[in-house]
Amino acid sequence: MKQSGTIMLEVLISIVVLALGILGLASLQAYSLRAAQSSNLRSIAADLASSMAEQIQTNRPKSLAATEAGIDSKYYGSSIVIPIPPNYAHIKCEYDNSTEKYTCSKPTGYTPNSKTKTNSQKLAEEETAYWLNLINASLPLGFNSDGTIKGGGIVCKDNTPDDGISPVFDPTDTDYATKTGCLSSTSAEYENAPYVIKIWYEEQTTKKEQGTLSTDDIDEKDKNVRVLRRFSSSLL
């Protein structure tokens, strides 16, 4: 009888150990799935940033006149100067809830450099709107409490690209520099600063993993939270 009870105790201990092992395996599997999703979202953000970088670098006038105004740089062996490309960092964009699309234009009161061609400026605005719509369709961006989209992407000028807590789509907004971490157009460093592409997207993680990141945590008992991640890329 005593031996039978001992065997039963050993079986119960074995079941407990096995259950703990299964729980640990399940936890590891969940972590692996989150890591894979995080890697996938970051890869998408990197592709979107690369796409925008290519558009910025290629948006230059295709035909030039010898008398056309431009900057001091010249084509090799030619007296024809290179016109200034549009300033992608100074484009204002708005989201239209009725069409669920972004539209972009020059900020009120802003006049592009006279050495920038009109067609190039218009193309920059259209490309930026298309890019934002692509981000909206490709990444989970989340929503603020007022129903506005939380994430998104911006092109700005910045000497410290790895900062900023959320996108602001109007470079003349008073909170632009504070929230995006980018330079204001009135900054002394603005003119010579490189372009930086920043993309914010929402990602689910655990409270233990999220650390000090800002969260949209409604249920304090829930172990999972939604955080706003940022991907940054500089154009040197």
Automatic annotation (TrEMBL):
Protein name: Type IV pilus modification protein PilV
Taxonomy, superkingdom: Bacteria
Species assigned in the record: Deefgea chitinilytica
